[in-house]
């Protein structure tokens, strides 16, 4: 949770604590200079150079016709050719649009931030940037937003209405988070399973969250989704989850109330590092095993610049 000195304490929640719909809508004008299309700059984590090349749009079967000089021999349909005695080829056309599913984590584990904003806010901002970019690329946008109790599914559509539905749900989820609630680790697998059951092939799945609750079942669901679809994981983290600020006493606040945290410096550092490693360590290892791309986004910096850097673009 953001730390403020007494003079800096906000009198009311702001976009650092709960992202408003207006704030997420305004990000449309910053969602430029990067993409999730197959053609990526060489510096991009999604380029073939890094072993994470995207499949791109799928292929639709168009027709079966007689072979013509110049046709690719690999497109021959040998069953029809043998049955008719005449060479036939199968003709495919590339899909004009791609389905992109955003899987956005809005559990209480995301209601934490030490500098710029809460993890839940940064996740909403990254999701908004991705959503606006997807629609600008003429692809279909869908999503599944989950908290500790429910999953909210948005079917893929190529329209601004789909973006607005997703952003409205994100703003509501942001506003509902509060300190003192208990985060449900198993909800991650429930959300992943719900999304996996609705996938077909050649879609792009982008998970945006902190990986809390990732386990062996998550590994299975990840493998299932990635067999015929592309998967990108955007890990939202706060620097204080890895290393506590160098202060003798920490003042922790949720914007309304605050408490002082003190104790053995070495023990606190070790506990925070162990907690972080337990939440995301397994997830990071399995992504490396499957060769899936990971984009880390810190709560302490502008998410736009971080996405641009990760995807090989420049402002």
Automatic annotation (TrEMBL):
Signal peptide: none annotated. InterPro entries: DUF58 (IPR002881), vWFA_dom_sf (IPR036465). It comes from the Bacteria. Residues 63-279 form the DUF58 domain. It holds the Pfam family DUF58. This is Putative conserved protein domain protein. It comes from Congregibacter litoralis KT71. The lineage of its organism: Bacteria, Pseudomonadati, Pseudomonadota, Gammaproteobacteria, Cellvibrionales.
């Amino acid at each position: 949770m953001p730390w403020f000195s007494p003079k800096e304490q906000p009198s009311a929640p702001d976009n650092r604590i709960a992202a408003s719909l207006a704030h997420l809508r305004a990000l449309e004008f910053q969602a430029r200079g990067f993409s999730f299309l197959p053609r990526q700059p060489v510096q991009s984590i999604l380029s073939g150079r890094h072993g994470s090349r995207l499949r791109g749009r799928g292929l639709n079967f168009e027709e079966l016709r007689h072979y013509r000089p110049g046709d690719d021999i690999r497109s021959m349909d040998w069953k029809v050719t043998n049955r008719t005695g005449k060479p036939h080829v199968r003709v495919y056309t590339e899909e004009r649009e791609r389905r992109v599913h955003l899987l956005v984590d809005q559990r209480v584990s995301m209601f934490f931030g030490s500098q710029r904003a809460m993890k839940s806010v940064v996740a909403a901002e990254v999701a908004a940037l991705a959503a606006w970019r997807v629609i600008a690329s003429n692809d279909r946008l869908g999503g599944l937003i989950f908290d500790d109790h429910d999953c909210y599914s948005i079917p893929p559509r190529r329209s601004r209405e789909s973006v607005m539905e997703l952003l409205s749900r994100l703003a509501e989820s942001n506003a509902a988070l509060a300190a003192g609630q208990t985060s449900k680790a198993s909800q991650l697998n429930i959300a992943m399973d719900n999304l996996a059951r609705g996938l077909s092939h050649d879609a792009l799945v982008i998970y945006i969250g902190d990986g809390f609750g990732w386990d062996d079942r998550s590994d299975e669901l990840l493998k299932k989704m990635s067999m015929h679809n592309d998967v990108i994981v955007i890990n939202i983290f706060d620097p204080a989850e890895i290393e506590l600020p160098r202060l003798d006493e920490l003042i922790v606040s949720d914007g309304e109330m605050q408490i002082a945290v003190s104790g053995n410096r070495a023990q606190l550092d070790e506990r925070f590092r162990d907690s972080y490693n337990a939440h995301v360590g397994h997830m990071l290892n399995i992504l490396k095993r499957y060769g899936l791309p990971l984009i880390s986004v810190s709560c302490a910096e502008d998410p736009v610049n971080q996405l641009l850097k990760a995807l090989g673009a420049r402002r």
